[in-house]
Design goal:
The chain is of the alpha+beta class and 198 residues long. Helix content is 18%, strand content 32%. A hairpin with a 2-residue loop joins β7 and β8. The longest helix is centred in the middle third of the chain and has 9 residues, at 88-96. It is globular.
């Protein structure tokens, strides 16, 4: 039996995808995953979500598992609330790939899936309000990628003229966010099997 442990976590808005900081100022001002649950020593996040993004984060104490899950054949699906009513043209561009900046260099994203959600998804309310309707309409889109570049989905929607206002990762491979609540962690026995299961 493996001594390693694996967790599914709904990372809330406002938390960094790390457990602590060596920077004293950052440690005072930021919130970390270690505040959410008593994770075992050596737990690491498989990939990251930026501070203002939410949703499914996989955690493991096994570095080899982390490498297997971050491969490009594993889909990551996001729900993005964007500024404005997203157009069919913008969705088509998201599907075929758009040029973004990665480490100050132009980068063409790989083709993926993108479609408009007919209704706002039933997600928990965010602690900090997005904005109100006086600032214009918003729409929700599902975007599925196989890459994990820094702030990739936010850069993609901005590149097609619809900046992201709220971003929630809802699926990694075969694992869905499902009924997890913000801050809730659920331990699983076989994280790789769940990810690659179709």
């Amino acid at each position: 039996m493996s001594e390693h442990r694996h967790f599914l976590l709904y990372k809330p808005f406002g938390y960094l995808s790390q457990f602590r900081s060596e920077d004293a100022r950052e440690a005072r001002k930021k919130r970390f995953l270690g505040e959410l649950h008593d994770f075992p020593a050596g737990t690491m996040a498989v990939g990251r979500l930026d501070e203002h993004s939410e949703g499914l984060l996989l955690l493991t104490t096994d570095g080899l598992v982390s490498e297997r899950i971050r491969r490009k054949d594993v889909e990551k699906e996001y729900y993005a609330q964007v500024d404005g009513l997203i157009t069919n043209e913008a969705l088509a561009r998201l599907r075929t790939g758009v040029e973004i900046s990665v480490e100050h260099q132009p980068y063409q994203t790989l083709p993926g899936a993108a479609h408009r959600l007919p209704d706002a998804p039933g997600l928990p309310p965010r602690p900090r309000k997005i904005r109100d309707d006086r600032h214009g309409p918003t729409s929700w889109v599902s975007i599925t990628v196989t890459e994990g570049k820094n702030r990739q989905v936010r850069k993609m929607t901005a590149a097609v003229g619809f900046p992201t206002l709220r971003l929630v990762r809802v699926r990694i491979g075969g694992i869905a966010l499902a009924t997890l609540a913000p801050g809730e962690a659920h331990e699983v026995l076989d994280i790789v099997g769940l990810v690659v299961r179709a």
